[in-house]
Backbone:
């Protein structure tokens, strides 16, 4: 193909918007276009402006442009047989909804609907045998289209779902560009025996608490956190594989809190903190994360992305941390055993009694990129047994302490790690080992373009 042919092809692919039903067979699309043309012609022979609208409709249905004249002729001369053909062709529920939204979109294009247009719309609603709830959804969404109001559209769709209307969710953005449905979920408590499974992308506006014996299944959905929103799993079960935790600019609480739980495994989950909130905090929990990512998470005090304490088991495999930060310690993670003095003052934690629990932390195949903190650019670990292998620390930095890692009262087994372009403040180092056993500069891994020093033992 020539350069011009390639350009034309790319233009067709990128700029030519296709109708939601453009994939149907050609006879279906021709009948659909004739039905649409009935509305265009209901006030008489169409104006030039109306013809242009019909021309666009023919185009997005991927029909030959010359079919416009045939559609107008068939609509003007339509008899009962033509109407029955339209009704029989559009017998599926989704087809009816899309057709009616198309008709309303044209009729209200000039912000007014004529009497004849209104009668035609109502007659089609009746001939399609649409229920009251279905008509309510179509007319509600057409109003959102007219106002270009995605918030109204969300309310209309949520009401339709509650009334068991089979909303063609993936098709609605054609009629209202930019619309992406998110179910609204306010404060909720799941008690023993209760199960909640998300069916759609969800916007949280309050606390969701999952108590002992209850279960929350995020079903791989996008979950957006608004003002005051958080998910607290206190003894219950969380299924979060494949989910995306997304902080809005209004978010002001840690997105996910795990408490008093047995082993919890999360695979392929992604946390986007909007430089606003922490991703996860954990207390008395056994957690394993595999192929998860944490991006732009932030907290003022400790652990920009993760705060893990008073627990014995934490495993991270192939997890990625990018652009996380804190004004305190541990730009990406703060890990502490129960001897951490600050813990007793945190309202998040219950009063700690009994033996001290030393955290057992395993990090394998991790990547910490541009993690920043006042102290301990990537990891701050206190009173822990640590194993870090095959992990990359890239461009991590701190004002005091270790540019990548700070440890205190730990036992550390580290190997085959890479530290590159990590920068600590004057007189500090990339890794600082405070009263820590088992680690040496040679065992930690390779250091490249780091400054001012690689390792300091205190």
Residues:
């Amino acid at each position: 193909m020539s350069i011009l042919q390639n350009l034309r092809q790319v233009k067709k692919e990128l700029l030519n918007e296709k109708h939601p039903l453009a994939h149907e067979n050609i006879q279906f699309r021709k009948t659909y276009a004739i039905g649409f043309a009935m509305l265009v012609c209901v006030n008489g022979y169409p104006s030039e402006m109306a013809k242009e609208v019909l021309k666009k409709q023919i185009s997005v249905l991927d029909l030959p442009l010359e079919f416009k004249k045939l559609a107008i002729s068939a609509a003007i001369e339509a008899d009962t047989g033509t109407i029955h053909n339209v009704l029989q062709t559009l017998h599926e529920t989704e087809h009816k909804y899309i057709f009616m939204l198309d008709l309303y979109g044209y009729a209200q294009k000039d912000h007014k609907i004529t009497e004849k247009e209104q009668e035609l719309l109502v007659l089609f609603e009746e001939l399609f045998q649409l229920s009251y709830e279905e008509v309510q959804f179509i007319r509600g969404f057409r109003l959102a289209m007219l106002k270009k109001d995605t918030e109204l559209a969300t309310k209309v769709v949520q009401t339709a779902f509650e009334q068991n209307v089979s909303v063609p969710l993936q098709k609605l953005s054609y009629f209202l560009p930019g619309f992406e449905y998110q179910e609204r979920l306010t404060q909720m408590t799941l008690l023993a025996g209760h199960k909640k499974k998300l069916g759609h992308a969800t916007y949280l506006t309050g606390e969701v608490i999952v108590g002992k014996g209850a279960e929350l299944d995020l079903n791989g959905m996008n979950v957006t956190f608004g003002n005051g929103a958080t998910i607290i799993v206190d003894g219950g079960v969380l299924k979060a594989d494949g989910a995306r935790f997304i902080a809005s600019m209004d978010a002001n609480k840690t997105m996910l809190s795990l408490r008093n739980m047995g082993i919890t495994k999360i695979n392929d989950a992604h946390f986007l903190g909007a430089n606003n909130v922490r991703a996860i905090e954990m207390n008395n929990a056994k957690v394993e994360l595999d192929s998860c990512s944490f991006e732009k998470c932030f907290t003022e005090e400790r652990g920009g992305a993760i705060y893990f304490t008073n627990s014995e088991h934490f495993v991270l495999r192939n997890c990625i941390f990018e652009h996380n930060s804190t004004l305190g310690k541990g730009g990406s993670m703060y890990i502490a055993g129960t001897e951490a003095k600050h813990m007793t003052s945190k309202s998040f934690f219950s009063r700690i009694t009994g033996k001290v629990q030393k955290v057992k932390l395993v990090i394998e195949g991790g990547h910490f990129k541009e993690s920043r903190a006042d102290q301990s650019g990537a990891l701050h670990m206190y009173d822990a047994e640590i194993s870090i292998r095959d992990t990359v620390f890239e461009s991590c930095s701190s004002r005091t302490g270790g540019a990548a890692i700070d440890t205190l009262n730990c036992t550390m087994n580290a190997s085959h790690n890479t530290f590159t372009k990590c920068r600590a403040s004057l007189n500090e180092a990339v890794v600082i080992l405070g009263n820590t056993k088992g680690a040496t500069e040679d065992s930690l891994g390779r250091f490249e373009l780091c400054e001012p020093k690689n390792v300091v033992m205190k």
In short: Confidence is low (pLDDT under 50) at residues 341-354.
